[in-house]
Structure formats: C-alpha cells, structure tokens
Amino acid sequence: MSESKQTKYVTAGRDKKWTNGVVNPPIQRASTIVFDTVAEKQQATINRANKTLFYGRRGTNTHFAFQDAMTEIEGGAGCALYPCGTAAIANAILSFVETGDHILMVDTCYEPTRDFCDTIMKKMGVETTYYEPTIGEGIRDLIKPNTKVLFLESPGSITMEVQDVPTLAKIAHEQEIIVMLDNTWAAGVNFSPFDHGVDISIQAATKYIVGHSDVMLGTAVASEKYWDQLREQSYLMGQCVSPDDAYLGLRGIRTLDVRLRQHAENSLKVAKWLQSRPEVDHVRHPALETCPGHEFYQRDFTGGNGLFSFVLKTTYPKATTALLDGMKHFSMGYSWGGYESLILANEPKSFNSLRTVANPNFEGTLVRLHIGLENVDDLIADLEAGLSRYNALILEKEATA
User: Fold this and answer.
1) Looking at residue 2, what is its pLDDT?
2) Which residues are tagged catalytic?
C-alpha cells in the first residue's frame, strides 16, 4: 500500500540513519570529515557520491536527509542543493551545455533566468531561442540540430500561462533534448514532473518549501539518466548549502500540505472576488478559465497556491501607486511562498524588456498577488480599500481631462 502524499511530507527524509532515533535529523555542521584509518578514508572516497560523509561540500547527514525528502516527494533519482533558486537554474543548465549548443527557453521565464541566458550563456557561445509558452506542437519548428535543453516554467512568471508539459516533453525527447522545468509554483508536489516527461525539476526552495521567507535555497531533482552528471558537475562548480538552511527546508516540508491548501483556498476566494470588481479586466489564476492554459492546469495539477495576477482595465501609474502605498496587510517584495501576503504591479510597457515573443495581449496594469495565511476577509478588505484609492485618482484624472 503506497503512502498518501500528506503522509509522505511528514515521513520523507526521516530514515533512522539520519535521525539516530529522534524526530528531526540533527543539524550536523562540518567542513572537514576525519578518519581513523586509511581503510575508512578509502571507503569514504569510493562512496563520496552516495550520501557518505567525505567532505563538507559533499554534504552532511542533514543535507542527505533533505535530499532524500526532496527526491521522495518529487520523484527522480537524486536531488542537488544550491544556495538559491537562481543558482539551481543556472547550474542545472551549465551542467549540460557547451559552446555551440542551443537552448529553447520559455519566454515567460523568471527574469533572472532570461538574464542568465542573455549574458552568461551568450558569452559562452550558447544560443537561446525564446518561445511562446502556449506553443504546443509548434515547438518542433524551433528545434535545431544543436538544441540541447528545452526549459519550461509552468505557470509562467507574472502572467501565469500554464504550459502543455507532456506534449512539449514528448517532442523534445524525440530529439534527445533534455527537458528542464522550473517547478517552483507547484512546490514540486502539485505537479509531478517525472510523470509528465520532465528530466530535471528545479525549485526555488526559498519559496514554498521553506515557507517562512527566511532562507535562500535551491533544489534540482533529476531522473536517473541525468542524475550523475547533474550531481558531479554541480559539485565541480562548488555548489553547496548551509546545513542550517537544509534543516529549515526539511522542516518546511512537514507543513507543506496544510500551508499550500490554505494558500490555495485563500487565493481562489480573493481571485473570484476580484472577478466581480468593475476595475478588473480579467484574473490570471490557473484555477480559473480566464487564465491561459487553464485546461492544462485542470489536467495536470493536483492543487494550487497563493500566487496569481489580475489585470486592471486601465493603466495610470499615479493611481497604481495610490493602490500600492496604502496597503495594510499586503507588502511589496520580490518573492513569494512565505506565510505573508505580497503585492507588485507591472505596467504593460515593462514587459517589452522582459519578453521577446510572448508580449501580453492586454493594455491595463497587471498586479501580481501572493495570498498569504492571513484571514481572507481582512485581505479582501485591504484590496477593496486600495481599489477605492485607485478609483479616486482615476476619477480625478477623468475630471481634468
């Protein structure tokens, strides 16, 4: 009888070889690992890639427990750890490309992913082609003989397009192309990457895995075919994390299910309330039909979270500022996935520097929300007050026009 995913979040990574009989694996800090005999040292050297104490950069029992847990909840053959999500993305790509290769990158990717491709990859002689997130079968036309990686992010950053991952992965595998996915939105648990054709699933564990906005952490879980290369290449590039951060990631997994369910419940209530507002053009929440790719969300995902966007009918920066500046429960910040609510706004022209082919088909200001664990009625009241401030400036503008 297989465990439910809720049980798995509680039990993953708690093997007695890591816990020594206590509930949580202890924080084991180490740089140097010492050996009493030549035979012990030789044995550790032989098994250094297999969760054996060898040298601090290879990890301690705390790291091994967290890696086990991430591998267990996402699937795959192993998990590499990085000091942040951007490092996980960059090093996963670097582990598999060389000069002369070509990458297919979804145009709605996380902004630092684009910056990495446009600077570091370009400098290395690796070409990047950006593609429309809803391209589907059309991805065939963009594949080149030297295409090495197809990179997906679903839903997409800011505009929330959900991709047809199985179709894209199937086409990529026909050409022996490695499929990588930024799986942060689903926290690795509401979308099963290896069941849908992904080879390497990447997360900013900074967000929902840790869940408390106090740790920078990245993970990449790989299939058996690519695990050895990802592990060893990342090690050679010096990637490692603090055991304290690994411990907090492991602790975050224990409450991941209940947190995600509450985030999802709260966000859907707010999203549906926003749909009723006259100022709102449409809401981009994957669980709603108004979100591009909603049908793939329904088919492939098992749950939601607190992150979505909505688009206002107009764009007037002064009014948007009035909306943002007076919030009581929403703060402005460049992250999400913690217990707190966040808000950011993007004017349509800002996408010109962020997109190549997936330019937004709307004219109003886009507002991205992360709905936290506060009382949802308090959050709605906060947004209602913000929209009142917004409307006052819109009316003032119209009166003087």
Assistant:
1) 62
2) 57, 110, 182, 207
